[in-house]
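thread: overnight batch results

M.L. [08:02]
morning all. the overnight job finished for the chain we discussed friday. pasting input first so we're all looking at the same thing
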Amino acid sequence: MTLSPAASALVPDLAKLGGEWEDSQARDRRFRRRIRAIEELLDRVLLEECGEELVALLRQLRAMCSPEGQAPEYPAREVLEIVERLDLDRAITAARAFTLYFQLVNIVEQQYERDEQQRQRFDRECGEVRFAPGTFNWLFPELKRQNVPPRHIQAMLAKLDVQLVFTAHPTEIVRHTVRLKLRSLAQMLKRFDEISAGTSYDDIEMLTSAATWEADLLREEMLEEIRILWRTDELNQNKPTVLDEADNTLHYFREVLFEALPLLHERLRRSLGASFPHLQPPAFHFCRFGSWVGSDRDGNPSVTPQITWQTACYQRGIVLEKYRQSVDRLGQLLSISQHLSDISPAFFAHLDRDRQVLPEVYQKYSVRYLREPYRLKLAYIGQRLANTHERNARLQELAWESAELTPQLHFGEGTFYRTVAEFCTDLLEIQQSLEATRLHCLSLERLLVQVEVFGFHLARLDIRQDSGRHGEAIAEVTRYLGLPDYSTFSESEKVNWLLAELQTRRPLIPSRLEFGDLANDAIATLRVLAQMQREFSDDICHTYIISMNREASDVLEVLLLAKEAGLFDPAAGTGSLNIVPLFETVEDLNRAPHVLRTLCDLPLYRTYLESRGHLQEVMLGYSDSNKDSGFLSSNWEIFKAQQSLQQAADRHGLELRIFHGRGGSVGRGGGPT
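M.L. [08:03]
and the structure it wrote out:
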């Protein structure tokens, strides 16, 4: 049969599609073999631990699911009958076994998805690399193809500011022990891929038989890890503290984010340069992080000012330890001899200054690093970091009120880093000297990226408190001082009274707090925030979120408490705090534009916003509005609120930043953006 020219032209494309389909089927079969291999390992462990009866039960229940895991006619009655015949102990054991099974399957699925992304990244079509939509390597060529003016791209890159916030959910804590063991198993599977590459064995043969001695050893390690995981409590046996929750959250910074951010910037820079070589990449800190853990006190009485202080110190301790490790690695790397490479005179001048401040370091390392000035410089940096770390550990043990007055915190001038800028200056001295002699150190550049992103605070702490707490505290103060009771004022009276208090330097609240516990906590929260800014810089905490914000007075109340803590200067009208109203219910969302317009019409508040870069941040809550009106209606109300808020901001010449309080579940606003 003779094909028409049009049909003949389609033959190569059809053949290619057929080949891609066959490749996809092969990858799918390999994935299923990997799942069966993991099932075999788990069954072997459970057979030894619990006997044949449990393994037979698990196999029976697994067989009742469809091969795709989505049975159109799920045999619910049959499954229920099997489960109901189990006594309590056997039911618990079966539930634990299925939990472990799904944890192992999730590891396999995650690695499969990672491999698919990697394959798509290097899949070649018509001689060109084809990248998945949404990646940097797809984005910039697409912008070039659509003839987007480079000046527009440069303007967007200059303003690029991504802020990802970890919110507080203390009931969702997973044990570190379990997480680390699952991570260990994932790494073993990755090693298994390296061993099996280039062999003729399939996954089941490699993981369940002595195919090679390396595979045999790895299989024994995996069996041992699964067996230990089976005998490990999955849940904490004690009620987790707020600091436990902080440690749980900061795990992701230690294990992933700290190393990932420099690579993210590097990928963006290279992708941009490939399409637009003359454009400048965004600042290193275009992506930063915040956290509510240890600072969100709305509905959590365990979060006290002291806990927030300790959380800030704990975060700084983690990032300092990371920097010390990086500096140690740089010391191993920069073994440059001054006899074999030029060193700038300015760098030797810096070393002489360091010798005068830290003579003990010079005495210890001057002979060892006699010809290696960069290693000597890094020894000075390492000692300053160690002193900073020791001082921070002492701070964490102290009450926040007495931190500034404690003598043992006083280290000699220049022997520790008071600010991250001082640390950055030392690193830049090394970089400038290297570049002057045509040397480039990627490890040093990555460390500088980390310093700019994480500073000495790791992640910004956002304070959140219910709006009612502030009004109640101010009302208690007015009653204590014999003033008219603030709680009896109308909204307009509250605004006028607050404006009058905000314009006087006279303190309203006595230094010694003799009010009720709730009022004392509300006042002390702003005071510890001011103390944190003095100790850590504004980077540690400059956002105060007011949940259930309904009126303009809710914002002014926080501003008054901030003034009393020294965070707002009534003479200049400036402050160091971003006050963020959170509109949550449907009614509050509808009132949000009115609240913003009311605030912007107040000259005092407009002057205050000028000191914050003409920026007003607003947070929109998805959870409560979802409870009010359902998913669809809630999202529609949030959409309308965003439009109205933007119109109000434009009318007053403000930059509006909207913080979306979305969670993963549908009930918390989860779903496609």
